[in-house]
Design a protein that fits this description.
The chain has 187 residues and is of the alpha/beta class. The chain has seven helices and eight strands. Strands 3-1-4-2-5-8-7-6 form an eight-stranded mixed β-sheet. This is Orphan protein.
């Protein structure tokens, strides 16, 4: 039985970012599926939940813009990452997801060749990744590159610093993009 994905975004995602907790709003207390963002929902979350969530959405858009253009076309959809965030991020057909559940890697071997190749899983935060492993919510082997970044090339998973300006600075976003390029070239 496959695990239910819970979060915001497109069910047909190519890039999923996993965070430990949903925004602290009543709507998310009962959310039990993956739903696209609608009607300025990101702005509403930012207003109700503060600067921390604003950073998550901003850094997510910046990461998408930094991904290798030969593999991802997010930067071609809008002139700036800010405009991309406001007009496309986590919406229907955006190919992006922000998940509050664990990665669902229970794909049949026949599906793995086609779908998993196109899906990139980014776990935001070393602590979150280690908690998922410790609690049996993620069955994988990471190659820890240093204290902040880890990679599982078989399942297309990268662990990086949490989506915050200080933790995932522009230099570290560039490193994340390089790791994605390495993953893609190994397929």
């Amino acid at each position: 039985m496959s695990k239910q994905l819970i979060g915001l975004g497109d069910e047909q995602f190519n890039v999923a970012v996993y965070v430990a907790k949903a925004p602290p709003m009543p709507y998310f207390e009962t959310l039990n599926s993956l739903e696209p963002v609608i009607n300025e929902q990101i702005n509403t979350i930012n207003q109700h939940c503060g600067n921390g969530w604003r950073k998550v959405f901003n850094v997510y858009a910046k990461v998408l813009f930094a991904l290798p253009s030969e593999h991802y076309s997010f930067a071609k959809q809008a002139p700036t990452w800010q405009q991309y965030r406001d007009e496309f991020l986590l919406q229907k057909n955006s190919k992006t997801a922000l998940l509050f559940s664990a990665p669902n890697l229970t794909i049949t071997s026949a599906d793995k060749a086609s779908s998993n190749k196109n899906q990139l899983h980014i776990i935001a935060g070393r602590t979150h990744a280690k908690n998922l492993l410790q609690h049996g919510k993620l069955q994988t082997q990471f190659d820890w590159l240093d204290d902040e970044f880890a990679i599982d090339a078989i399942n297309n998973i990268i662990v990086c610093p949490y989506f915050d300006y200080r933790q995932l600075s522009n230099i570290k976003i560039a490193r994340l993009s390089e790791l994605v390029a390495q993953l893609k070239s190994s397929l």
